[in-house]
Amino acid sequence: MxxxxxxxxxxxxxxxxxxxxxxxxxxxxxxxxxxxxQLKEAPPAAHAHSTGAGHGAFFNDENAATVAAFTERxxxxxxxxxxxxxxxxxxxxxxxxxxxxxxxxxxxxxxxxSLDAYCEKTQKAPFTRLSAAQQxxxxxxxxxxxxxxxxxxxxxxFFNTMRVHTIEGMFxxxxxxxxxxxxxxxxxxxxxxxxxxxxxxxxxxxAYGGTPMIGLQAQTPMRKG
Length: 225
Hints:
Elements lengths: L2 H17 L41 H14 L9 H4 L1 H9 L7 H19 L8 H12 L11 H17 L11 H6 L10 H5 L22
Helix pairs in contact: 4-7, 6-7
């Protein structure tokens, strides 16, 4: 993993840990997209989503590949260090756009179209066919508002929304479709719901590494047939 990738991972992990975003197993995603005034802020996810194969609730194959590549550059994986692909961030965003974040569907459609238009113009290829270094150049242009071919959403609004949704997909409760196998929680040392902590656990300054790690899914009553 390059120093650039490590810095990006550290930024996202720090943003979560520093904000106390994993303070409870019932963490629900919030829409923090910087959108046009007429676009309402998406509400928190109110219902549990089951995890799927990765997409199909909203994204087509082409858009899914772009979102997967984009989020992986935001949160790149490495040996022993899960990234966006490992944590199922694509699945999280796909399910959210088909449900709680349905009012962001056009935002994503237009943003993804503008992204590929910009990539074709500057790199002569769509985002998914660019090298990691080229993709990073594109992300930097979006983050700084220097990318052309964006009207609505703006380049910065699209980048910021993708970054927020990547963080949500990495660190929200797995019941929403991301944080696969508690990859994000393990990354920041968040234990989830535990039946009990020992005296040694309570006194330790180290991240809790015990099991089982439990999320909201385990608290959902089983329906008897």
